[in-house]
């Protein structure tokens, strides 16, 4: 298999991918702490992109829309340890402590190389070889160890990890104009804008005079057209960054909207 995931427990996993690339679009319910052992990870957000190489450690904050693309590199597979820092674990860690100043971040947090953090995550690797179930109490200890280290090496991390607020109702138009390229279920778009699915669809039609599905497809194809004509990108390098799952579906939808295949545009500038 090109892609394998081995779980110590539901919150800690080791992934290994040997194919050309592996893409996922996410707005995780938990903070995700990632240690990249080999390969390369590109994370695309609405306003910024990040590229991480082997040895990088970074945190993807919860509820942040992102396209994540994992590549093998230098003859090595994409291999990473990922730890979910769930609200349950973080509430237990912080107990009733309160952070006075909340920092809301929409950015990926990258950590400088630090022996404490690297040794904590590296120590997990032997546990993936265990044939029996990993003891829950030890998994909790490892997660708490990682949180303790993060709070030691980053003075701002408490105000991120100790923030349990749910998304409030925000302006739908500005949010969708900024995040339309992320291929999320409508329920997730609704949640991130502080709405039920029914309210989201109602407010969306009022704002755009269109259904979400039609509007999203149109916006993504318009962005693809711009990328192909103005930036001279290849269709194969565009479709997965604008919310399409495969090249054939993208090509079909593009031709339906514009009357010609996307390959007609590449190389004409």
From TrEMBL:
<dbReference type="InterPro" id="IPR018060">
    <property type="entry name" value="HTH_AraC"/>
</dbReference>
<protein>
    <submittedName>
        <fullName>Transcriptional regulator, AraC family</fullName>
    </submittedName>
</protein>
<dbReference type="InterPro" id="IPR054015">
    <property type="entry name" value="ExsA-like_N"/>
</dbReference>
<keyword id="KW-0238">DNA-binding</keyword>
<dbReference type="Pfam" id="PF22200">
    <property type="entry name" value="ExsA_N"/>
</dbReference>
<keyword id="KW-0804">Transcription</keyword>
<dbReference type="GO" id="GO:0003700">
    <property type="term" value="F:DNA-binding transcription factor activity"/>
</dbReference>
<dbReference type="Pfam" id="PF12833">
    <property type="entry name" value="HTH_18"/>
</dbReference>
<dbReference type="InterPro" id="IPR009057">
    <property type="entry name" value="Homeodomain-like_sf"/>
</dbReference>
<feature type="domain" description="HTH araC/xylS-type">
    <location>
        <begin position="170"/>
        <end position="268"/>
    </location>
</feature>
<dbReference type="GO" id="GO:0043565">
    <property type="term" value="F:sequence-specific DNA binding"/>
</dbReference>
<keyword id="KW-0805">Transcription regulation</keyword>
<dbReference type="InterPro" id="IPR037923">
    <property type="entry name" value="HTH-like"/>
</dbReference>
